[in-house]
Recover the amino acids of this structure.
């Protein structure tokens, strides 16, 4: 079971675009493929900034003559940080777009988390 946060857009009528479920904790897609993950979440600026900065850092480290193992270790540390903060960045984006926190249920998957929040909102037990 995992902890999720469920966001609903104020005055939202479209069930597909006005609800978002975000897993709490480490993001493996954010760790492994941050730029692609950010693009899939429509976080264009974050994707561009991270890609450009990472490219500049790698090329700068290679210009200094640093060995490949050290560069790889530094990139792994940077990727770990992206994995830790990826879901937090996505939650922040949702809040800026007018989404409000509707609940934080413990569930086995995002659909079950959304179901629990929507049922609890109507006074039923999930």
């Amino acid at each position: 079971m995992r902890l999720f946060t469920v966001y609903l857009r104020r005055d939202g009528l479209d069930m597909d675009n006005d609800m978002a479920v975000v897993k709490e904790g480490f993001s493996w897609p954010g760790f492994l493929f941050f730029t692609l993950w950010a693009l899939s979440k429509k976080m264009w600026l974050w994707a561009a900034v991270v890609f450009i900065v990472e490219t500049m850092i790698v090329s700068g480290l290679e210009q200094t003559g640093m060995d490949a193992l050290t560069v790889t270790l530094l990139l792994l540390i940077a990727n770990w940080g992206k994995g830790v903060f990826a879901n937090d960045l996505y939650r922040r984006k949702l809040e800026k777009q007018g989404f409000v926190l509707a609940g934080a249920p413990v569930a086995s998957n995002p659909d079950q988390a959304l179901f629990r929040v929507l049922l609890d909102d109507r006074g039923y037990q999930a």
In short: Strands lie at 2-9, 19-23, 99-103, 106-107. Residues 68-96 form the longest helix (29 residues). Residues 2-121 form one domain.
